[in-house]
Design a protein that fits this description.
Strands 1, 2, 3, 4, 5, 6, 7, 8 and 11 form a nine-stranded mixed beta sheet that branches. A two-stranded antiparallel sheet has the order 9-10. By secondary structure, it is α/β, with parallel strands linked by helices. Helix 6 (about 175-195) packs parallel to helix 8 (about 225-250) and helix 7 (about 200-220) runs antiparallel to helix 8. It is built from eight helices and eleven strands. It is globular. The longest helix is centred in the last third of the chain and has 27 residues, at about 225-250. It has two domains: about 5-170, Spore Coat Polysaccharide Biosynthesis Protein SpsA, Chain A; about 175-250, no CATH class. It starts with a strand and ends in a 38-residue tail after the last helix.
Length: about 290
């Protein structure tokens, strides 16, 4: 069997790291790259047999590349700490690695997330799902340097889909969803700006609507009851925030103080006007302006 290293990035993930590592316990090497956990993440990972390294956070792209460089084997699989490799997916990976493999190929997975206790459909476009590579040979493939968020693997061969699900089960609540969407929106807007995408009113208006229609109708959110509606609205909101931030970067500057036509600052050191200097209408008793 071709040897394989499973790579997991962590920071304060003691709630999830145990189940993640156990789901890939069949791998030849499990490598955890931690970026400063203050909980029991590293301790749990080491107790389960993982090789644990520490690296201050470099950003998603550079952190992943650092972990890949530390791997013992050329074939690597990236798994997030809040993901679970199902037994079906594990069997598919082991089958693939037990056969003759072309190092130029990449293996794609079907990743599906949760929302308040239900499993969501995969909302990616078919072409995106086909090329959602998580298993690859580092000598021939690697992360696209232009993708600083939602990183993508570039590989010279063909994409081979693996059977079984990769579960992304985080159990977010609303107070967690909104900051996460907001944080990602900033990074996504920066990347769009670097790629020359220009924000305008039509884009800001249409993108959230199209995202909602895709999630709710095209991908079956309508069949998930209230959860499906809320999730589609959240995805639409994240789209709105992303393109609004892009517009802000390109066309709006932060204005700390109102312009003088709105508010003229009071000059310090100038004595206040006497009552006799005020207009007659303001000199009446009880009228103080």
């Amino acid at each position: 069997m071709t040897p394989l290293t499973v790579i997991i990035l962590t920071k304060n993930e003691e709630l999830f790291i145990d189940r993640c590592i156990r789901s890939v316990s069949w791998a030849d090497e499990i490598l955890v790259l931690d970026s400063g956990s203050t909980d029991r993440t590293r301790e749990i990972a080491q107790a389960l047999g993982a090789k644990v390294y520490e690296q201050p956070w470099l950003g998603w792209l550079d952190q992943r590349n650092r972990a890949i460089a530390l791997a013992t084997h050329d074939w690597v699989m990236m798994v997030d700490c809040d993901e679970i490799v199902t037994p079906e997916l594990a069997a598919s990976i082991q089958t693939a690695m037990s056969q003759a493999v072309d190092p130029r190929d990449g293996y794609s997975v079907n990743r599906r997330g949760d929302f308040y206790g239900i499993l969501l459909p995969n909302e990616s476009r078919p072409s995106k799902r086909q090329n959602y590579i998580r298993l690859f040979n580092r000598q021939y493939s690697g992360y696209d340097p232009a993708r600083t968020v939602h990183e993508e693997i570039r590989f010279p061969g063909k994409a081979i889909p693996l059977e079984g699900l990769l579960l992304h089960w985080r159990a977010y609540v609303m107070d967690e969803y909104i900051p996460v969407f907001n944080r990602y929106a900033t990074q996504e807007a920066e990347m769009l700006n670097q790629h020359g995408v220009r924000a305008n009113a039509l884009l800001i208006f249409l993108r959230p609507i199209l995202r909602f229609l895709w999630c709710y109708f095209a991908r079956g959110g309508i069949f998930l009851g209230t959860r499906g509606l809320i999730h589609a609205q959240l995805k639409a909101t994240s789209e709105f925030i992303r393109y609004s931030k892009l517009w802000e970067m390109q066309q709006a500057q932060r204005v700390l103080h109102p312009p003088e036509e709105i508010y003229r600052p009071v000059s310090m050191g100038v004595p206040p006007a006497r009552v006799s200097d005020r207009p007659p209408s303001l000199q009446q008793e009880g009228l103080h302006g």
